[in-house]
Design a protein that fits this description.
This protein is an alpha/beta fold. The protein has a single domain, classed as Glycogen Phosphorylase B (Rossmann fold, 3-Layer(aba) Sandwich), CATH 3.40.50.2000. It has an eight-stranded parallel beta sheet with strand order 3-2-1-4-5-6-7-8, sandwiched between helices. β6, α4 and β7 form a beta-alpha-beta unit. The protein is globular and about 35 Å long. The two termini are 20 Å apart.
Length: 162
Amino acid sequence: MNIGIYVNSLSDANLEYISNFINESIEHQYASDASIFFDDVGYNPHKVQCGIFNAADIWNFHGVLITTSLDTLSSAKNIVNNIDLYYYYGYEDISKINLLNLIEKTKNVKVICNNETDSLEFYRKTGKKPSVISECYKGLAAQLQGHENEYSKNTTNVYRAK
């Protein structure tokens, strides 16, 4: 499985979690390859075992692509490659998110929520349940491959990462 993360900037405060997620995915062989795509370059102090590319290179990517904002989601939805698109809800400043944009842009996209609270909030706002719940990207790679754990056995269609 190829995993890609699309961020607004390489100086994103959540890049530590993203780096840990990618390193874990490669280490445990959930992913054969991983990439980080960005719109704005910035300083990244975190060691990551993948390629880091400008968003203009997404046209050549195939695999699971996780977007971290509504802006990156909008850009990624225009790509016609073989991409399994996800939107990670829970890190964007909620006060800056337009509710109608959130509903429209996530209509045909799988959603990952950061925690149970974000999951309930996302459902309340959109009427749509998330596909995966993963706090700080922990255990997300296994969930994207469809691995089950004790949290998901009693729940329909929502995977909860450890």
